[in-house]
Amino acid sequence: MNIASVFQGIATLAWIGFIGVLFLVVTRASRQQPTRGLSTAVIALAIVALIMTAAGLGLVFLQADQYGVVISAFQPNGYRAQPLGPGLHLITPGIESVQIYSVARQTYTMATSASEGQVSGDDSIEARTKDGQQVYIDASLIYAIDPAQLINLHKTWQNRFQDNVVRPVTRAAIRDAVSQFGVEEIVSSKRTELEQMITVTIQKGLADNNLIMSSFLLRNIRFSDQYAQAVEQKQIAEQQALQAKLVVEQKKQEAEQARQVAQGSADAAVIAAKGAADARILQAQAEAQANTLLTQSLSPELLQYQYIIKLAPTVQTIFIPSGNQFILPLPNVTTAQ
């Protein structure tokens, strides 16, 4: 509680007491009862009430986020040249008054949802892109009064600056910026550029009207129902095309895998056949070499011995006619001339 409010509270109590005592004096006087002491109290309460009222009206306390413009009959232009800052100030009661402004940051929202913006109902900004598509923008602007320019703001707009400056400047900047981009650009590659362009335009528009812009928030971009359906259908078609491409790529990979398997089988068969052929050649060479060695080792005596062995392995005794050396003629191992 500030001291001006204290004085005003005391003044209110003094006036209530004055009225009450005055009523009592009138009542006692009508009954012809003594009122000497009460009359003094009435006068004292009246003086206190007047002093406290004057003090309460003459003192102005401003909070840390408040500035005031003094409306004064003493000044030729009707107001003091300098605004009042935070703290306790003295003005002339009845001749001067203070118009208080908050210099704290304020947020002005324009959105589709009725519960978010300053205006009830759908308050989004309707704009048209460079390629003729209609979009709806949800945005918020954070701004504040420039304390150094409070007198000029008061002279120009007073308390109408939100509806007459902040709102129209912001909506006009958004519409102008959106008209310079295509619909696909503002939702993808150039959304940041769009937001920056709007910010610069709003900042200049508010500065020209003694306001300071803190930040601009591009909250949402909504399309018309027809365009939203077209975008959805396009995305579905792109997804289907991508799926088909993946299927084709998968089939290619499967075909390549099958080809490699077949190639591997063919290569294995060739290698196996070559190995078998090489083995047969080596076997034939070994047999030929063995036959050569066997041929070189044969002699008549050895052949006769082998002949006898093969004749009858179980024969223990052989009877031959007298005069004959062998029971059967031996094979001829000599080569005819």
Structure at a glance:
The chain has 337 residues and is α+β, with helices and mostly antiparallel strands. Helices cover 54% and strands 17% of the residues. The strands form 3 sheets. Strands 5, 6, 7 and 8 form a 4-stranded antiparallel β-sheet that branches. It has a two-stranded antiparallel sheet with strand order 1-3. Strands 2-4 form a two-stranded antiparallel ribbon.
Structure description:
- The chain is of the alpha+beta class and 337 residues long.
- Among the domains are: 3-63 and 72-99, no CATH class; 106-226, 2-Layer Sandwich (Tetrahydropterin Synthase, Chain A).
- It has helices spanning 3-30, 36-58, 150-156, 161-178, 183-186, 191-207, 225-297, 300-311; strands at 59-62, 66-72, 87-90, 96-102, 106-110, 125-128, 134-145, 211-223.
- The strands form 3 sheets. Strands 5, 6, 7 and 8 form a 4-stranded antiparallel β-sheet that branches. A two-stranded antiparallel ribbon has the order 1-3. A two-stranded antiparallel ribbon has the order 2-4.
- Strand 6 and strand 7 form a beta hairpin.
- Helix 1 packs antiparallel against helix 2 (36-58) and helix 4 (161-178) packs antiparallel against helix 6.
- The termini are far apart.
